[in-house]
Amino acid sequence: MTKIISLVNQKGGVGKTTTSINLSAALGKLGKKVLLIDMDPQSNATTGLGLNSNDFSYDIYDLITGKCEVKNAVKKTKFQNLSIIPATINLAGIDVEFVKKMLEDKSFQQNSQLKMKLDEIKDNYDYIIIDCQPSLGVGTMNALVASDSVIIPVQCEFFALEGMTLLLNSIIMVQNGMNPDLRIEGVLLTMLDGRTNIGLEVIEEIRKYFKDKVFNTIIPRLVRLVEAPSHGKPINEYDPMSRATEAYANLAKEVISRDGV
């Protein structure tokens, strides 16, 4: 049974895209068929897998605005069991585009467009991972409505919980309305610098706040993890022996064990 998971946090720089890429690749290495969806107009998940706009004809913007069929938006990557629906800067205009459509058609459901498209192909995959932009706008709302669960990456730094109430309220709003089955898959601690005490203090604070929702796996802050996207590779291809490769493999195993997929 397919599991659709969004990586969500309206704060930038917390490891959403890094985790989206590397969790997807790790699941693929474990034999799971994975579709990664880039829902960020910065398109870092797309370029992080070695793709640029010359490599595809359609992107996520074309898909959710009805300019192409979902099968035409999916692009196979060179990595094991991993496909992607890429993004371009065009996605930045989705809020305006959808407001215009709502004015023209009162029945238009602006937050359900991604779900309707994914319903056509989701049975082709074990996991669909959605990399959301650092905001709670239309793109992220589409991801939440389409998802079974969310992973919230939280960096092991001061102010880690800043803005968390707003994010949780948005999740509750979706649960109360458009997607009552949406749940929090887990909170992922990222960017741990083992040389500082603040990281350990944040871990304690996060675990006190979210309890058993926190993944056991913690993603370290490593130079090799930062370098990998510039080479268009997930960490398990760029540096198979890296501690980050091991960490994301462990995260993938945790996700599988929680989901039973």
Descriptive key words:
261 residues, alpha/beta, 8-stranded mixed β-sheet
Quick structural summary:
Helix content is 41%, strand content 18%.
**Roughly what percent helix?**
40-55%
Strand order of the largest sheet: 3-4-2-5-1-6-7-8
Distance between the termini: 6 Å
Give the tally of β-strands: 8
- Count of helix runs: 12
Radius of gyration: 17 Å
List SSEs in N-to-C order. EHEHHHEEHHEHEHEHEHHH
What does this structure look like?
This protein has 261 residues and is of the alpha/beta class. The protein contains 12 helices and 8 strands. The chain has helices at residues 16-29, 44-48, 60-64, 70-73, 94-104, 113-118, 138-146, 164-176, 197-210, 223-227, 235-238, 243-259; strands at 3-7, 34-39, 75-76, 82-85, 127-132, 149-155, 183-192, 214-220. Helix 1 (16-29) crosses helix 12. It is globular and about 55 Å long. The termini are close together. The mean pLDDT is 93.
Helix-strand blueprint:
Elements: E1 3-7, H1 16-29, E2 34-39, H2 44-48, H3 60-64, H4 70-73, E3 75-76, E4 82-85, H5 94-104, H6 113-118, E5 127-132, H7 138-146, E6 149-155, H8 164-176, E7 183-192, H9 197-210, E8 214-220, H10 223-227, H11 235-238, H12 243-259
